Amino acid sequence: MFRRIGRAFKEAWWGIRHHFAMVSSTAVTITITLVLLSVLSLLIANINQITYDVEEEIQVFVKIDKDVEEKDIDALKTKVGRIAGVSEVVYSDADSELTYFIEQYGEAGKIFEIYRNDNPLSRAFIISVATGFSISEVSKQIELIDGISEVNFGGATIEDFINLLDGTRRVGLIFTASLALLAIYLIYNTIKITIHSRREEIGIMRLVGATNSYIRVPLVLEGIFIGILGSIFPCLLTIFGYKYIYEVMNGQLVSGILKLIDVFPFTLYVSGFVMIVGIFVGWIGSWLSASRSLRWKR
Amino acid sequence: MIILENVSKIYKNGTKALNDFSLEIQDGEFVYIIGETGSGKSTLIKLLNGEEIPTKGRVIVNGTNVGRLRFGKVPLYRRKIGVVFQDYQLLKKKTVYDNIAFALEVINKPKEEVRNRVKEVLGIIDLANEFNSYPTQLSGGQQQRVVIGRAIANSPSILICDEPTGNLDPRHSKEIIELLEKINKSGTTVIVVTHDYVLVDTYKKRTILLDNGSIISDNPEGGYVHV
Predict the structure, then answer these.
(1) What digits encode the pLDDT tens for the residues B158-186?
(2) Single pTM value for the model
(3) Do B108 and A4 touch (CB under 8 A)?
(4) Is B13 on the interface with A (CB under 8 A)?
(5) Do B76 and A209 touch (CB under 8 A)?
(6) How far is CA B133 from CA A204, A210, B121, B136, B138, in A?
């Protein structure tokens, strides 16, 4: 058993050494594909993180009608809280609203203290939503409730931003999947050429009674080796490239709200993923190619 | 023992290669199969090798119905027969030793067994001194001897040779036939498909003449029979 495994590794290594130019060109192509995959993975993961952060930050500001009596506030709060997508409802009375308003203006805001006894501001509910996507729908439903005078969540801009992030994520995933398919196709062709260049040897193997699996295993291993070779540079680039970008950008994108994911262990996960994808495309590409090319002819 | 019972072979393109063909070859026999191109000689080898299945009839080799072998069993069957072709089909990047050992390694024979058997085979084919040479450093006759060595490495009970002297001069052809005789004397059934009528007439063995997929003559005395 071990001898067989050893032989398969030896044969695969022999194949790589004897078709080094072809193996190298495929490995380089795989490297380019995996670099793109790595960049996309880093981007998608950060987009996910940013989307999550933005969603966490989004709050709906709901003004309560002045006619609503104090004793009915709790019932109204319960009603609002029951709407699907609402994760938290915080009541803020008119006094708190004025304090918040004054704080927003700093020192200059103290001038508004004169309204403390004749407060023109409304009481409000500050609502957190479960996901950014339900914000528009949640706002519309809150608006329909009696006793609510105005609903504000930052308008379509936030929703557009979230949709943009989501769109980027989807396009990235499709692009990544296409690249992975391309890599499989490239390995497929390399192994096909390997099989072609070793057709005499394979013919002799068949002639003397080698089984199909005996012939196929080294070829599949060769594909896996090419996948590993092709993924070494992308893995290093993932770790050191991202570390560099993270340091240059101070760990944030545009502002402190949009934070980049910490370098470790994030880059180790991504480079591990890239390596696994490299191995997987190497395996699937060579397996398909070997199975097709060695389809048993009697 | 090889038995072909009413075997017909029609290829997908409609070519009729063998026509209600029956033949029996006993264990340890040396048989020449001769005939013009297209007479069915190559198809006969392919049927014996399990490369093709008969359209009709049965091909039985040492009790195995070759035509009914499952795909997965064909490699195991092939380990019991040796095949030699006209074009030497040697691995140019491997030495004489490695080329012979290759036949044993691909069927997972233990290292020790491979070493001993290859030494033995090198003695049989009289190339012990050339064990470390590459095929390109050998003459045509020597290369063909290596191919024969590889074919008998696994001690097959049947050795099939398709035009083994086709590319050789008379001196080397003689050497090859003498080597095949030596192998035959050790108990291996040898089937030689050839165009070399001089050889057939010189080293007389049972000779079967084919034409249009049928046996025209089967001469146990040997020698080329003009029909």
Answers:
(1) 999 999 988 888 888 999 999 999 999 99
(2) 0.68
(3) yes
(4) no
(5) yes
(6) 19, 25, 15, 8, 7
